[in-house]
Amino acid sequence: MTDFLPTGIQLTYLVAASLFILGLKKLGSPATARAGNVWAAVGMLLAIVATLLDRHVLNYQMILIAIVIGSIIGVVAAYKVAMTEMPQMVGLLNGLGGSASALVAVGEFWRLLSTGEPMPLDSNISMLLDVLIGGVTFTGSFIAFAKLQGIMSGSPITFPLQQPFNALLLIGYVVGSGFLIFDPGNLPVFLGIVVISLILGVMFVIPIGGGDMPVVISLLNSFSGLAAAAAGFVVMNNMLIIAGALVGASGLILTEIMCKAMNRSLANVLFSAFGTGGGAVAAGAAGATDQTVHSIDAEEGAMMLGYARSVVIVPGYGMAVAQAQHAVRELADQLDRLGVEVKYAIHPVAGRMPGHMNVLLAEANVPYPQLYDMDDINPQFDQTDVALVIGANDVVNPAARHDSASPIYGMPILDVDHAKHTIVIKRGMSTGFAGVENELFYNQKTMMLFGSAKDMVAKLVSEVKQL
User: Fold this and answer.
1) Fold held by 298-465
2) If you compute the radius of gyration of the chain from its CA atoms, what whole number of angstroms results?
3) How far apart, in whole angstroms, are the C-alpha atoms of residue 436 and residue 288?
4) TM spans, by residue (predicted)?
């Protein structure tokens, strides 16, 4: 039995890793995402059980207490956190993952220091990488949470010589790490690089605007995976290495997708302090404000929607803030009753985390076949009678296609201006994250319906019911 146990653990790890890969594959589509989540969760359960059977585990009582406490917190959070606050939740989970990995490295360093055991070079390097990535992920994720939650400003926070200061911090970490390679038992230096890693996480995220949070969250998610993989090398656990590598790789791929959707490089997102946070008009928008805006009321909007043959709904962050997803689903149901074909157009960076709109619409039980990504829906706008834009701004701005002076020039957008008519629900004429006026609002085919997304959609539902 003792001979079989290590082999059985490794085989279980192999099964768990396979379930992780299959789960990630299924998470790529809204229709199979729930099943993918279950598959991955089963894989994680197998990995935890196998690890607990490992004879290197010394204190089952403390581990079980931690599992019970963590499970209770997780269940309560899952039920209490609103879907509109899911980006904040993801940010916190990324931070906790990074901190857990960093604590593994700190704990292993402390163990080797207290026992007087020699510190192998490979373990030492793994610990140094784990502390760096885990520390940056921990504090960076909590800053992202604070920006999303409104605890601190969502606008970029910068100061003179910020990048040279960051470079000095990184150089300090490298120098400290080099010192520890030659003198592994130096506790003050080790504690110093831990502090530097935490400061780097703060400095990494504060210059990034709230509108770039989808990229930041996916990148921090990748960092949490890389930190876990580094922790796996520290404790020599194959499952942790595999799981961390999968999370790290998938996070990097998602980050690349997000950057491509904004036509910006990752370096531009991280270091350009892009965006005004809305409200301010950036250079290149001059001349837009003297154009005419066509405003309608809910009754006129309901008639346009109710007598259309096809309607494409474009949800944006304004819908999320107003928590209007259930009202939107009710409107779609009423339009379906009248024989109107309804589809939803999802831009990759709409919202405050990857897949934010998909999550909100799934909560409202919107049928998966009605959800279309940008590449699939754009060719269909030419045949669409009405495009209903709810709280979206930069992702539907036609200036991205032709205005080379615009900050969003070249960014792939949803071609709602190609529809026969467009209705935009918005509180006012304030700009989006990029700080530029939206040409769509002044288009001859665009009708503005001013007000809260939830209130306006509810009025549309009421009016459509009377048709």
Assistant:
1) Rossmann fold (3.40.50)
2) 25
3) 9
4) 6-24, 36-53, 59-79, 91-113, 125-145, 165-182, 188-208, 215-234, 240-259, 266-286
The closest alpha carbon to 414, from 381, 370, 369, 446, belongs to 381
At 324, list the tokens.
């209007």
Residues with catalytic function: 394
CB atoms within 10 A of CB 192: 17
DSSP letters along 344-367, please? Answer: EEE-TTSSSSTTHHHHHHHHTT--
Q: Which two tokens stand for residue 407?
A: 């900050």
Going from N- to C-terminal start, the domains of the chain cover 81-271, 298-465
Query: Which uninterrupted H or E stretch holds 426?
Result: strand 421-426
Greatest distance between any 2 Cα atoms in the chain: 82
Which residues are CB-contacts of 337 (< 8 A; sequence separation ≥ 6)? none
Which residue type occupies 107? G
Task: Tell me the pTM.
Answer: 0.80
- The answer to whether residues 337 and 464 touch, using CB atoms and an 8 Å cutoff, is no
In this structure, are residues 278 and 430 in contact, taking their beta carbons and an 8 Å threshold? yes
Which residue matches tokens 């940008």? 374
Alpha carbon dihedral 175, 119, 66, 51, in 10-degree steps, equals 120
* Pairing mode of beta strands 421-426, 341-346: unpaired
Residue 215 CA: distances (Å) to CA of 92, 253, 254: 15, 11, 8
pLDDT in tens, the chain (467 residues): 445 566 788 889 999 999 999 998 888 777 788 899 999 999 999 998 888 887 666 778 888 898 899 989 988 988 888 777 778 888 899 999 999 999 999 998 888 888 877 778 888 899 999 999 999 999 999 999 888 888 887 778 888 888 899 999 999 999 999 999 888 888 899 999 999 999 999 999 998 877 777 888 889 999 999 999 999 998 888 888 999 999 999 989 888 888 887 777 788 777 766 655 444 444 444 444 557 888 899 999 999 999 999 999 999 888 888 889 999 999 999 999 999 999 999 998 887 777 888 888 888 889 888 999 898 999 999 999 999 999 888 889 998 888 888 888 888 899 999 999 999 998 877 776 767 888 999 989 999 999 888 999 999 999 999 87
Q: 428: closest CA among 463, 398, 403, 393?
A: 393
| Strand ranges of the sheet holding 371-373, from the earlier edge strand across to the other edge | 371-373, 341-346, 310-315, 386-390, 421-426, 446-450
The number of residues in the chain equals: 467
